[in-house]
Amino acid sequence: MAKKITNKLISLPQDVSIDRVVDHPHSLEIFISCPDTDQLCPVCGSRNCVIKDSGRSLTVRHVSVAGKGSFLSFHVPRLLCKQCGASFSKRPYFVHPSMKLSATAFLAACVSLTGTHSIRDIAIDKGLPEHQVLSVLCSVEFHKPDSLPRTLCNDEFKGSYDPDSHLWNVNRYHSNISDGSN
Length: 182
Ligand SMILES: [Zn+2]
Hints:
Elements: H1 2-9, E1 17-23, E2 27-33, E3 49-65, E4 68-81, E5 87-89, H2 103-113, H3 119-126, H4 130-139, E6 152-158, E7 173-179
Parallel strand pairs: 2-4
Antiparallel strand pairs: 1-2, 3-4, 4-5, 6-7
Bound molecules: zinc ion.
Residues 41, 43-44, 46, 81, 83-84, 86 line the site of zinc ion.
């Protein structure tokens, strides 16, 4: 019962075991054991996978806990697909498939990005580095709208930029296009 309350308080699934917590000056590192679940091969989708080797430790960012940024540290075994021969790390279901983020942290950043807060403010609020919030933003696909609003506003503004960046903030000036009626 105590485990379930702790897991709930720090937004972890109920089937995760918390082994220990290390309190660093600016963050918490939560060492966990992951549930042993089947993993599909990412190449062919087969369930016929076996453990190839002992794998490695992985650390990903998680949501803020008591005002501090937090990390989840856990072990990921390496699996071998007996169907197609591919080998891959077994990522837990509650971790983003490609980013070093928990799914909860990814979702929290996505929700915040729908508001009017700056990347910097979201990063501080969620205990994430700015570049990770930017990666979340870049991972969202914006489809073409079915129709355009009656009034279309277009404005340019000077924003933060990094000439060495490969992301959207490579340019000094940005553009804001919005629905002027709403
Ligand atoms: Zn396979």
